[in-house]
Every structure is written in structure tokens, then in C-alpha cells.
What does this fold into?
Amino acid sequence: MTPPGPPCHFAPPKLSLVFPVFDEEENLGDLMASACKIGEELGEAFEVIAVNDGSRDESPRIIDAWTQRDSRIRGVHLAENKGYGAALRAGLGQARGEWIFFSDADLQFDLAQLRDLLAHTPDYDIVAGYRSPRRDPWPRILIAAVWGGIVRLFFGLRVNDIDCAFKLFSRRVIETIPLASVGAFINTELLVRARASGFRIHQVPVNHRRRRHGRQTGAHPRVLIKACVELGSLYRELRNAVPQPGTRTDSP
It folds into this structure.
């Protein structure tokens, strides 16, 4: 697919938008167009980083077509499928913005709601969206509820939607905390480590819609097992850590 419109010009970004991509050929065109549209409407210099996590479809070529057409879009290609966390970390490592946002490539969120997150950046280091209401099938909602309970039990982290892929955070966060997850645990690790480091977290409701194209993989047994293994590793690492004073997680 060839993206429409004239070439865009590079400007040092204030905002980075990062999207892990795995077999999303049917969604990528709309995603890239939507990301550029919201970036332009915000009136700030921005960049879009699409991370191809070893896709087997046309996703790599679609990403390359957009990067050739628009200098604000950058592609990162992993030679093989490394996992959601590994892809996200690769994108975060390339991000140059003062504020870094990430979401999925499956069009389940309205990127225009990034404005709602940015409104809270003067007071918080991380602004995390939560799906309200959540439009996933009930088995995924049940798994998410159980997972949230486990995370609260192990880490005392109380957030409405840990794995919601609609998060914005200051560059200081990613420069301070070491992320190690290669799988879906990356969302939990990010929030747990950020809270332990004293960063301020705020939650904002965001609209959610069902995936229109492609296939979800978040509830695959292999993904869940990997997340549990990574949770155990992080718990062992942090169980003797001293809580940081003044740390809080705020809900609306």
C-alpha cells in the first residue's frame, strides 16, 4: 500500500508515538494515517515509530513505504518474532521525544484521545489509559481480572487496566527504569518499576473497540506462561526493595 499525500518534513520531535507491529497488514495504512493526523492536530513536532516484530505478511513492506514517503515515520525491523515486550523496547530505544506514547497497531483505540492523556502531563510522569468499557470477549476480560488480582497481590499495584496499550510517559521514565520483559508482561513491568522509582501515575478512561482485522494473540497459553515467568523474576528482584516516599497512583 502506498500512503497518500505529499512528503512531510522532519522536525526534532517533542512527542514520539511507538507501535509494535506483528502481522498487521490490514491495519497499518489506517494506523499510520491516523497517527500522522493526530500528530499534526496537536501542533507539536512528532515522530512515529513502527516496530516490525518479524511479521510474516506485508507489514514490513507497508512500513517501508510509509517511511519513504514521510520523514516523520521511522521503521524498526526485527529479523524474527521476538515478542511484544521486545518489540516495544526496541521502539522505545529509538524514541527521541520528550514525551513517549505507545499503543497497539490493531486500531482498537482512537488515537485522538491522546489529547486526554497529554492534558495531565504537567502534573504526572505517566498517564495510563484504561478501557471503559472494554470491548473484548468475556474470556479475555476474565483473564485480565485474574491477572490484575495477581499483580495487586504480588506488588500492591492498583490500576484499573494494567495491560491497556494506551500509555504516555515522560522520557525520564524510560531513561531511569530498566525494562527487561520480552512478552506481554512489559505493561506490568513498566508500571511496577515506575512506581517503585517514585514516578507519579495517573489513569484516564479511553474508548475501546473490537479488533476489525487480524488475530489477537494476548490470551495464547504461551503468552500467559511467559508473563507469569517474568512476573516471578521481577517479584524476586523487587521483594526486598524499600518503597519510595511520596509515590502514588491516582485514579480519576
User: Anything to note?
Assistant: The mean pLDDT is 87. The longest helix spans residues 138-155.
